[in-house]
Amino acid sequence: MSSKQGGKAKPLKQPKAQQKEYDETDLANLQKKKEEEKALKELRTKAQKGGALGGAGLKKSGKK
User: Fold this and answer.
1) Which residue stretches does the UniProt record annotate as biased composition, category Basic and acidic residues (predicted)?
2) Helix or strand or coil: residue 17?
């Protein structure tokens, strides 16, 4: 008799993660973190476009 075990074995199911309960301070920290990440993302896109980040940069005198 041959066994019916062919191919890949299915992975065991992971237990579902339980919902965490957040209090007001946790929610405020999460909101602050999201806002910081959004600001960083905007700065990255601005830097990729080649826009100035606020400095005057190097100025050339024009003399040789």
Assistant:
1) 32-45
2) coil
